[in-house]
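Following up on my earlier thread - several people asked me to post the actual chain instead of describing it. Fair enough. Here it is, all 274 residues.
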Amino acid sequence: MDCSGINCNVATVDRAPKSKRANPPANIDPQKIEELIKAEKYGEAILLLGSFLSKHPKHPNVTNLRKILASAYEKNRQFDLAIQQMEKVIAQEPNNADNYAILGFIYRRANKIAQAIKSYRRALELDPKPEYLSEIHFCKAYEKYFLKFALSQKAWDEVCGYLNEAIKVNPNNSEAYELLGYIYEDKGDLSRGDGKKELARKYYINARNEYLKALQYDPANTRILFYLGRVHFFLEEYNSAYQYLESFLKEEPQDQQAQDLMKQIKEIILHKDK
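Reply from S.P.:
Thanks for posting it. Predicted structure:
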């Protein structure tokens, strides 16, 4: 959810005559906070914005600023604090569907799926956007696959059914494509482990196709580059695997899994060239 678009100017900082400490500014630049969040300086963003809001709880842009603070808490995995901020926003804007959708997303990130679905349903009641219904289907799939550890064929079919419904009502749901890709890759791994190479290849191709769709709708999700590199590796398409992993490592150079896989690919390519 995008919390940008607030235009506030930074005021000149005055000095307290006795303590010589800076008074909080009368205003704050949300763009600066969002730049800190983008740079993954979550603690700094939280400190700066949290301090400002504690001094200016009636600021004219307080609800938008609280959304930004909730985003910083969420990215810093402080989900309870993120939820608290959104509850304050909702108390001031109880009829804004998007606020409930943001809260639903945070609940899902916190693995509180029942609360997430409840929040998305409230959003849907206020504004029947297909995105909200899509998120409800996705939450059900996410819970079934990751939290209940359902690995039977029947469970897989049920998860895929939820994801296909999510995509049907919102074809731009990149997370649904990503999770479908992950499921196909998982099934490919199991088939490969059972010695069913042709079946494994079929699943890996399906995984690749779903990951490509996810990347199409969310090009900023660099993690998908790693998944694509891994799938191409299992498909023995080493040059493609190399390219995706190279792109991923430019963004995440410290990722050990990607480094290890890239090392294997380089050794295979070098051996083939000899």
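The CA atoms of residues 66 and 88 lie 8 Å apart. That should answer part of your original question.
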